[in-house]
Specification:
Blueprint lengths: L1 H9 L11 E6 L2 E7 L8 H9 L7 E6 L12 H8 L3 E6 L9 H8 L3 E4 L3 H7 L1 H9 L3 E8 L4 E3 L11 H12 L3 E5 H7 L16 E5 L9 E3 L13 E6 L1 H9 L5 E6 L8 E2 L9 H4 L3 E9 L2 E8 L3
Helix pairs in contact: 3-4
Length: 316
């Protein structure tokens, strides 16, 4: 299952609106087939793995990070039927598909065909890998990650606006990896006008993983950019699983004030700026007590001379 999760995670940012599923087929202790959801969402991970396994899929165990789909599409058959027809003896799935077109029906089809089914193995890791898809199904919007590069004292720039570069090369490379795992990147009009950012992926071998670009602005449209007039417009992004918000302070504040941020990445540099531009403005809190219990720190790590702090929104 760990291998299946890793395969699915590698596809994150390329499969929306489909989930980034990973699949491994094992026969007599040997991996005979594996795959991930293809770019664009088809073929599904199970179909890729079954094709690779061929006749060796018969009597094998199939590990998948998500319940095999149960609905037939113009783009391909239902994976639960493919699995049953291939003679798979056992399916181990991390989580049930929340998509109402499947939602337990895939397991029902498999069991009816005589396939043994076990669920819940690797559940936490699979949910983390497919958090974008699961968030979109649960809330009708992408999972939103806010990225900030800050000094020790929480500044994003000097009073003049200069911010290149607060962090070092390792932190900036990690940002590009996050971009490669996102379906869309968004900045505000101020950042666009000041920096003319490309927002592409500049890691060797991953250049083609550059996501779509979006601009938060009520102004004129910009060629090559998708326009959102309000943070609430994320609810119309039905083909985006993971949205990365990169700047600037006003845009970050707007998303936080609407309580739309699910994850914050802070790249903390070992520098002091003193007087400078703060990371956020007023986000709607009037008492310190209201600020507690909203964010959980996870996965802190050094990145060269800098430090990455990851915070996840605690929701009911």
């Amino acid at each position: 299952m760990a291998e299946a999760v890793a395969l699915g995670d590698g596809a994150r940012g390329r499969t929306a609106p489909n989930p980034n599923v990973g699949c491994v087929i094992v026969l007599d202790g040997e991996i005979v087939g594996k795959g991930a959801t293809a770019p664009g969402g088809r073929p599904h991970a199970e179909a890729v793995a079954l094709k690779q396994a061929g006749a060796r899929a018969r009597s094998a165990t199939l590990y998948t990070t998500l319940e095999p789909c149960a609905h037939v599409s113009t783009r391909g058959p239902a994976c639960s039927n493919l699995i049953a027809d291939a003679g798979i003896a056992r399916v181990v799935a991390a989580i049930q598909d929340p998509d109402p077109r499947t939602a337990g029906l895939g397991f029902k089809i498999l069991r009816k065909a005589g396939v043994k089914v076990k669920t819940g193995v690797g559940k936490v890791a699979a949910e983390a890998s497919m958090a974008g898809f699961l968030t979109r199904l649960a809330f009708g919007r992408p999972r939103i990650t806010l990225k900030l590069a800050l000094s020790i004292d929480g500044k994003i720039a000097l009073p003049s606006g200069e911010s290149k570069w607060i962090t070092g090369e390792d932190a900036r490379a990690h940002v590009h990896l996050e971009r490669a795992h996102s379906d869309m990147i968004l900045v505000g009009r101020g950042t666009y006008m000041a920096d003319q950012p490309r927002l592409d992926v500049r890691l060797p071998g991953l250049e083609e993983r550059s996501p779509r670009r979006a601009l938060l602005s009520r102004g004129e449209a910009v060629p090559g950019w998708e326009m959102l007039k309000s943070p609430k417009d994320v609810h119309r992004l039905h083909d985006v699983n993971d949205l990365l918000v990169e700047g600037g302070s006003a845009t970050a504040t707007a998303f936080l004030a609407e309580d739309l941020v699910d994850r914050i990445l802070i790249y903390r540099a070992p520098i002091l700026v003193g007087e400078g531009k703060s990371s956020f403005g007023y986000i709607g809190l009037d008492a310190i007590a209201d600020a507690h219990g909203r964010w959980q720190a996870v996965d802190p790590r050094p990145l060269g001379i800098d430090r990455l702090e990851v915070y996840e929104r605690v929701r009911g």
